[in-house]
Design brief:
46% helix
């Protein structure tokens, strides 16, 4: 049982080192914030109300 847990820990360690070397953890903040911004600006519709004549 000890050998299985050591082998599993070694597999996780190797995969973590591989992920770091390939750049998986370079920018983990921007993708989460990107959804908060619109891709294009929303244009306001012009006000078509007639001015009040007094």
């Amino acid at each position: 049982m000890l050998l299985v847990s050591l082998l599993l820990a070694l597999i996780f360690l190797v995969s973590f080192i591989w992920a770091n070397k390939t750049g998986q953890y370079d920018d983990d903040v921007t993708p989460g914030m990107r959804i908060l911004y619109d891709d294009e600006e929303v244009k306001k519709k012009p006000n078509k109300e007639k001015p009040n004549k007094e």
